[in-house]
Amino acid sequence: WHGHGIVRPVNGGEWEGTFEMGKCTVGTLRRPNGELEIGRYDSVNPDDVKEGVWWSIDRQNIWVVEEGQKKEQIDQARALEMVAKIGVPLPTELAHPGQLAPPAPPIEQHLAVPDPLPQIKSEE
Question: Considering the entire predicted model, what is its pTM?
Answer without folding.
Answer: 0.72
